[in-house]
Amino acid sequence: VNKTVRTCTSTATSSCNGSTFGENVVTAPGQYVEFQIDITNNAGSNIRPAMNDTLPTQMEWVTGTCQVYSD
């Protein structure tokens, strides 16, 4: 599992395109961030992982902004 973050200007994914993902970011109150969580299956079998992630106390979840991609 690898978790990275980048800054954005709104909830639209396209507003994040100017920044790259890294281990941490510095933000101001009201600024948006986008997290990327990569899960790699090295077992060679077909599994469906389940996970959860807790936001820092100063952050607020924006409903409807989660996207799941599968390779």
Which helices and strands, and how do they pair?
Blueprint: E1 2-8, E2 32-38
Antiparallel strand pairs: 1-2
Characterize this entry briefly.
This protein has 71 residues and is mainly β. The chain has strands at residues 2-8, 32-38.
Given the structure, what is the number of helices?
0
Mean pLDDT: 85
**How far from one another are the termini?**
15 Å
Largest sheet: 2 strands, antiparallel
> Would you list the SSEs in sequence order as H and E?
EE
> Shape, please?
elongated
Strand content: 15-25%
Adjacency order of strands in the biggest sheet: 1-2
Helix content: under 10%
Number of DSSP-assigned strands:
2
Structural class: mainly beta
Report low-confidence residues grouped into runs of 5 or more: none
Alpha carbon gyration radius = 14 Å
Q: Can you put this structure into words, describing what you see?
A:
This protein has strands at residues 2-8, 32-38. It has 71 residues and is mostly beta strands. The protein is elongated, with a radius of gyration of 14 Å.
Keywords, separated by commas or semicolons:
71 residues, mainly beta, two-stranded antiparallel sheet, 2 strands, elongated
